[in-house]
Structure formats: structure tokens, C-alpha cells
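User: Predict structure, ligand adenosine monophosphate.
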Amino acid sequence: MTDLILVLNAGSSSIKFALHPAAGSGRKPALTGEIGGIGTAPQFKARNAGGESLDTEVLAGADATADHAALVARLLDWLLAGEWGGRISAAGHRVVHGGRQFDGPVLIDAKVMQALEQLVPLAPLHQPHSLAAIRAIAERLPELPQVACFDTAFHRTQPRLAQLFALPRHLSDEGIIRYGFHGLSYHYIAGVLPDHLGKRADGRIIVAHLGNGASMCAMKERRSIATSMGFTALDGLMMGRRSGSIDPGVLIHLQENKGLDVAAVGRLLYSESGLYGVSGISNDMRDLEASADPHAREAIDLFCYRAALELSSLAAALEGLDAIVFTAGIGEHSEMVRRLVCARLSWLGVALDQTANEAHANRISTTDSAVDVLVIPTDEEAVIAEAARHLI
Ligand code: AMP
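Assistant: Predicted complex:
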């Protein structure tokens, strides 16, 4: 009987989960799944290591009122009753914000929980869900070791200038700085880069994590030196429903002259903008690529234009560029986005091999391209499982 690590990634409307073997990194999870539709109509899906779907009534009767804590409790009951070839010996959580304090994964105790609760105002839409999941597990299994892995931690290596806003000093001193996110994804890519690039992995690399949320990270020696997201996960690139960087004067204008209150501005920036807002059709790149509507094409063009601009700015932070890595849903699967972004980067020495790009090959640059362009699938859950293995 092997030990298993329960990996949980609690988002605003979904909880992804997996059971990873506690020994032998790189081995397949015994189980993966997701509870989606939280707050509306919760649905459950799970697959075993063989890819077979596991039917269960675990959420029977759960409705829009079932919160993260209640759903994690039900999930745990189901997991504890099942036969997965081992017993759960630890839990690892994705936690969005680790503030300035946490620069790596940490074993959770009462003091850590207190520190994480103090960070809720910095990520009010995400942090409470991770904390609810941690508490729900602690209530049912108080002796189970739990580990927190932070989306911000990978960026704590950045130089001070990369972290500062040009705001009055007292605001920076109290923590209004650029934190950066998607750190678990960047950590994973940094770990596998040598397999793809050999010694060049320690050079000047930009990783483009293009998913529903999107950001980029500039790495030197596989450490973060700059990133496109800032104080919140709103900054930087255009995303599925988020605006990305915007002239802050627009926000003042909307409140002064259009009668929007803070909540309405928040909704506009977090869920009504981005690909969805510009196209008026969908936040899903697949829908936009399939659409003949010119607004869909304009949304894709703006997404790619903004991505090329952001990438160029990060190349300036790196003072050059050796490789680009595309990852996450759009980065891994959209040949069109990769083609349109790279077409704007020939001045940096990027030459795309379009046949390789269409085949979604691992290396999609030509052999004489000055910059290697790679497609590497990310795996945030594997990073959480690995951290739990190390700490326990
Ligand atoms: P993620 O947040 O990393 O799970 O990425 C989700 C997003 O990836 C979806 O909303 C789509 O926009 C995009 N995506 C997934 N598959 C494809 C595909 N085959 N082609 C284009 N975009 C895709």
C-alpha cells in the first residue's frame, strides 16, 4: 500500500483535485478530477489512472448554496471511502498569495494560517477558497500534514526595481508592489527547461503562460527577474475575461463620469473585458478562431499584439532573448496565436517553422532562428505534489 498526496487547486468556481503517489516523482496520478460550477450548479468529474471516468453521486443534492468548504468535505468523504491503491498521507494546496513573506512552499500550522488570512485583502477573489479547503480538510483529518504552494513565490527572486510601482514610498513599504502570479506553472517549466535546451536553459528565457488567465515571466538562470502580472492578476496581458494593463485614468473616468462604483469597475475588469469583452462572443479562443465575425478576429489580433508588446518589454528587462516557451491552454494548443505573436517578433531574431507550429511540435522555431521557440505543457499539480513530498 503506497502513500498518496491529495493535491487541491481551489479556484473561484472550481476545485481541481488529484491523488499523486507520495514516492516516485513523475509517476502518474492515481486519480484526477474537478468539481466545477461552484455557486451555480456544482458538477463532479473524475478519472482514474487509466483514463476511465468514475461515476459517483458524491454531489447529489448540492446546489448553488454549496460552498467550497462543503464541497471539499464531500470530496474527502468520497476519497476516504474509495480504493485508490494507497492511503492519503498529506495534502498539497495551490494558494494564490504568499505576500512578501513566503518565497517557497510551507507546511501549514496555526501561525501560517494566520499569515495567509492576513493576505486575503490582496487576493479577495481567490485566497478565501484555498483557505476554506485547508480548513475543511483540517476539520475532518486534523493530523494530516498540509502544504501550501504559492503562485507568488517563484517571483520573490526579482530585483527590487522589477517589483516597484512609481507610487509614494509609504505605499510600497506597506506591500503595494508587483507580486506576479502563475508561479507554480513557471516553476514547473523552469524545472524541465534543461531537458529541452541543455545549457541554454540558464540563459534569457521568456515563458508565455497563455490560458484563460495569461501572463509572462522573464527568467535568467531559471529564476524570475520580471513578470507581466503585478499587485493583482489583472495586470499585463489581455486575458479571457480580464482587461490586462489599462490606463488608470480610464478607471477614474468611469467612476467620475459614468456612475460606476468600485464593484462595477471590478466586474468590468475581471469578467466583462478581455477576449470576451472585445469580441462580444466568447472568452474561449477556440470559439473565436472558429468564428467568421470580424469582432472575434479583432479580439484575437489585439490579444496577440498585446502579447508581442509585453514579450518585447520583458526582453528589454532580460537585455536580450535566447528562448520563448509557450504554455497553458492557448499557448499549448493555438497555432494561430503562436504564429501571430511570433510574426511580430522577427526584429528580435524569432523565426517560426510554420510546419512544426501547425504540428504542435516541441520546437517550433527554424534551425537558424536566433531565438528558440518551444511549446511545453505545464503541470502545476505536479509541482504541488513534489513540494509536499519534499516537506513531509
Ligand atoms: P487554461 O486556463 O490553461 O486551462 O486554458 C484555457 C483556455 O485555453 C480556453 O479558454 C481556450 O481559450 C484555450 N484553448 C484550449 N484548447 C484550445 C485549442 N485547441 N485551441 C485554441 N485555444 C484553446
